[in-house]
Design brief:
Blueprint (H helix, E strand, L loop, with lengths): L5 E5 L3 H13 L4 E4 L2 H8 L5 E6 L7 H10 L6 E5 L4 H9 L4 E4 L4 H33 L3 H10 L5 H8 L3 H15 L4 H10 L6
Protein name: Response regulator
Keywords: DNA-binding, Phosphoprotein, Transcription, Transcription regulation
InterPro entries: CheY-like_superfamily, Sig_transdc_resp-reg_C-effctor, Sig_transdc_resp-reg_receiver, Tscrpt_reg_LuxR_C, WH-like_DNA-bd_sf
Length: 205
Amino acid sequence: MADDAAVHVIDDDDAVRDSLAFLFASAGLPARTYDTAEAFVAVAAGLRAGCVLTDVRMPGMDGLELQRRLREIGLRLPVIVMTGHADVPIAVQALKAGAADFIEKPFDDEALLAAVRAALDADREARAREAEVEEIAARLAILTPRERQVLERLVLGQPNKIIAYELGTSPRTVEVHRARVMDKMRARSLSELVRMALRVGIAVG
């Protein structure tokens, strides 16, 4: 888990916040607490890892509005909403709006910890995927324009002779460019190169 990954607990009830902070500390999970959604939004833009655990009914900004605000500022941390039994329809709305899960109060500690750990795992995996895309994009950026043209045709499945014809060059020159593309992209096979292309949105036919 990244050093800054934490469970961000948002609830207007002091006792609930204290109880959850103790639970997460006991489980070895870093936690930060906020008494309003507005207080969390004030710091949210600077967060890069973790998950959000928020009550759905709060004075001022409620859990659903918080989700909307987080989307607006581009924060993509997984959100788990806490609801009372009568608030299940609201929880369903939260799920439709992108929440990772919802937990009914009073909740079982182990069920809550399982949901939070799953959300933290999902966040970690999402960040790993983003890092992979950034790394592939950085490799792509060092290709020459002609190498990029060869790459785009390779991932379409075109053979060297067809690529050479389309680019007005020789198959041997295409072979040289192809070797350079494989080297710069650090691809061990054509299938790996295609996978990289898919990751960064290059059309593969």
